[in-house]
Amino acid sequence: MGKRFYRFAVPLIRLFIPRLQVRWEVPFDGEPAVFVCNHERAVGPLEMAVNFPLREESPIWIYAAPLRRETTPDYVRQDHWWKEDGRLAPLWDKIIPPIVSLILPPILRSPPHVAVYHDARAATTMKESLRLLQEGKNLVIFPEIPTGFGEHDREKINEGWLMLLPMYEKRAGRPLKVWPIHLDLVGGEIRVHAPFTMERDISLRDQTAALSGRVLRGIFEERG
Questions:
Q1: For a pLDDT cut of 70, what percent of the chain falls above it?
Q2: Are 85 and 164 in contact (CB under 8 A)?
Q3: What pTM, to 2 d.p., does this model score?
Q4: Spatial contact of 182 and 47, defined as CB atoms under 8 Å apart
Q5: Long-range pairs for 67-72 at CB < 8 Å and ≥24 separation?
Q6: Are the CB atoms for 61 and 161 separated by under 8 Å?
Q7: Tens-place pLDDT, residues 26-47
């Protein structure tokens, strides 16, 4: 299924989601990059997988749990797919996870992607990501932390992926660029902001807060 399903599904998905226009703050230079985006629930990943012009050269980081039918139900229950305090929450808890586990895994496995693990297998995620970057590919990462139904933390992000920056520079001999993206459903745009890199003479630990802040300002388009 994989690539064939992906190429078949893309035109169909475009019929049901808004086709956002891509606007680059500066032209893309063709160097391997990490695109970090706001999620906008399911729309963000769909837009990046279907309408982003570099989609076939930009595998998406996808949490490993929903890639498998067996682990999808627990993922759905933990990922705030409905309001936990809602009157129908007990019903959704019984009905939605089994249905989603049949539909979601084959869809998520079809576009170019990297399985993201948060256990001992995290090294596999980083190794595969570095391999793709060294081959000239890009990565698409959604670093937001969900805090409830339709809500994400606006003050901090998942920061584990930042380890790619010094690891890539050590291997490739040049910095890895990070391009923040704001998906604006109301304005109908995918706005790609100018890239930045980590400071070479400062340890990642000492500049993690600054890097995270730049990502947050870019994906939410906040000033300061």
A1: 87
A2: no
A3: 0.85
A4: no
A5: 67/105, 67/108, 67/109, 67/113, 67/115, 68/105, 69/101, 69/102, 69/105, 70/101, 72/97, 72/100, 72/101, 72/104, 72/105
A6: yes
A7: 999 999 999 999 988 767 888 8
